[in-house]
Amino acid sequence: MVFEKIHIDSIGKSFIEKGKKTGFYADTFENRKAGRVGQQFGGKSEKKGSGEKGTPSDEMDKAIEKKLSQYPDNATSWGDADDGIRDLAREVRETYNELTINVLEGDKGYVESLDFKSFKTPSEWNTKAKKQIRTLWSKMTDWSKENVIENIITD
Fold it and tell me: Are residues 95 and 37 in the same domain?
């Protein structure tokens, strides 16, 4: 399918065809601030449990949970708590700061990194990292989640 033009209206909604009231929010300052960049608007919404395929957000949530399941909460060896979970926590945190809330280090609202050097046990390493990942993930836009999926999970 080839599209000739994408139209962006005054509030940052992009339309594939002029007059069609479905599409995705464009990457504008206002949409970034509201956390709407890349999110779909208009058209029919899919209901969970209706037997239809889940939404892209549901699929991304499943992908992050699948990745997190590799790191047990009750880890007893450092082999179960390696740099992978730390790297994922950093990627999610940086993506949240930069793409979802658009802040830099030192700005109000900036989420600091976890102090992994202070964690004494593999279990603490995994549980604190997973807690931060899940907390930030639930606040992220679909567009931000896609970036994490592309950068970390599909590597």
Answer: no
User: What is the average pLDDT across 60-69?
Assistant: 92
- In order of 21, 25, 28, 30, 143, the CA distances from 9 in angstroms are 11, 10, 11, 12, 20
Same domain for 127 and 61, yes or no, is yes
Residue 116's domain comprises: 56-153
Going by C-alpha positions, the residue among 66, 108, 91 that lies closest to residue 144 is 91
pTM of the model: 0.65
Across 10-53, where does the E strand assignment appear? 13-15, 23-25, 40-41
Q: Is there a single domain that holds both residue 37 and residue 96?
A: no
| Same domain as 70, residue 29 | no
pLDDT tens for each residue of 97-147: 998 899 988 899 999 999 999 999 999 999 999 999 999 999 999 889 988
How many Cβ atoms sit within 10 Å of the Cβ of residue 53? Answer: 9
